[in-house]
Amino acid sequence: MLDIRLISQDLDGFARRLGRRGGRIDLEPLRALDHKRRALITRGDELRHAKGAAEDAMKTADKKSEAFGQFRDQMRQAALDIKAVEAELEGVLASLNDELLNLPNLPDDAVPEGATSDDNVVVRAWGEKPAFDFEPVEHWTLGEKLGILDFERATKITGPRFTVYRGLGARLERALISFMLDLHTAEHGYTEILPPFMVNADSMRGTGQFPKFREEAFEMEKDGYLLVPTAEVPVTNLHRDEILEAAALPVRYTAYTPCFRREAGSYGKDTRGLIRQHQFNKVELVQFTAPEDSEAAHEALTGHAEEILRRLGLHYRVVDLCAGDLGFSAARTYDIEVWLPGQKTYREISSCSNFRDFQARRAAIRYRAEAGRKPALVHTLNGSGLAVGRTVVALLENGQQVDGSVRIPKALQPYMGGVEIILP
């Protein structure tokens, strides 16, 4: 959430900066509501002053005098007017909050200009595309021939865009989760969290999923809970409405959760395979930092996600998302895109974002910078470390051999019980 005090000081500047995301951002309703808010606050202060003056006058007036009655009437009328102003102000504040909740974050000045993913900027790459002496195939073909992915039975028991992992496929998914968590906790300084896989609406609102993306959530209306779209939601909300001590920062968490998304608006795209599923596993990285440290933390967090791919020997590139391709809550985002030879394209496998104080303001996550000073908002960051299903895709397509078998990277073999190759 953006700060209404800063917006009101430079509304045109905010509109211009938000406009970098594409389209025209109309802040006039916000301006009108803020003017009304200020006027009501001023009117309320005037009425409280008048009420106080009438009460003071009553104390010195003869209770049987006409003046006493006039002061009493003034006090009562002021009290009624105060209640009316407070009720109107409450409605204005609710409308103002709704407007703010629907405004996206400001892009950082360093974010590249552009409207679509075609305008994203490649900032670095690691490794080289693998060479094959045969025509590589897509992961869904490999997985079905290996007997480790069963899309047909998943559709039968649930519906489209679900998968059954079998045998070494299930082992591979589990191995990747453990490998990622072990690396992030042992070498990157993260504390492992196993959060609930259901959250309430306040948690979704705190990280920016609500109200903008409510239609993409799997919601259990009877209970008021929602299946998590990402571990970012429960893990960030661990500290909702809390004040952290400055000495405790940065706070680093990593968590595995299944993720549930309707993928609204994406139908017709990536309908085959594991790329765009309604349910998938992910290991998430979340950090809370002091404002002055968040840029360095963003670079470090992205590097932590990259290290998984380096250990697995997978070629990838890092792209700096342009303003028009930024997510709703992000101020700056690096996408890590892994090369998929079967599909002959790069695909996102991690999205690492700095949200600045956008989520912290929504979720009231603060820290005590100095004793005696008012607590300040932290900066929050998160990134996939990594999306597990898409890592399976990358391993299958990059590790395939001419006979249809798939090699397991050495770093992962201990988690696979020593298995070096998955055979048809």
Topology:
Layout: H1 4-9, H2 11-18, H3 28-60, H4 66-101, E1 121-126, H5 139-146, E2 149-150, H6 151-157, E3 164-165, H7 168-186, E4 191-193, E5 198-199, H8 201-207, E6 219-220, E7 225-227, H9 232-236, E8 242-245, E9 251-260, E10 279-289, H10 294-312, E11 316-320, E12 332-340, E13 345-354, H11 358-363, E14 365-368, E15 376-377, E16 379-387, H12 388-399, E17 406-407, E18 421-422
Parallel strand pairs: 4-9, 8-14
Antiparallel strand pairs: 1-11, 2-3, 5-7, 6-7, 9-10, 10-16, 11-12, 12-13, 13-16, 14-15, 17-18
Helix pairs in contact: 3-4, 5-12, 7-12
How would you characterize the overall build of this protein?
The chain has 424 residues and is α+β, with helices and mostly antiparallel strands. It folds into two domains: 4-101, Orthogonal Bundle (Helix Hairpins), CATH 1.10.287.40; 117-422, Bira Bifunctional Protein, Domain 2 (BirA Bifunctional Protein, domain 2, 2-Layer Sandwich). It is built from twelve helices and 18 strands. The protein has helices at 4-9, 11-18, 28-60, 66-101, 139-146, 151-157, 168-186, 201-207, 232-236, 294-312, 358-363, 388-399, and strands at 121-126, 149-150, 164-165, 191-193, 198-199, 219-220, 225-227, 242-245, 251-260, 279-289, 316-320, 332-340, 345-354, 365-368, 376-377, 379-387, 406-407, 421-422. Strands 1-11-12-13-16-10-9-4 form an eight-stranded mixed beta sheet. Strand 12 and strand 13 form a beta hairpin. Helix 3 runs antiparallel to helix 4 (66-101), helix 5 crosses helix 12 and helix 7 (168-186) crosses helix 12 (388-399). The longest helix is centred in the first third of the chain and has 36 residues, at 66-101.
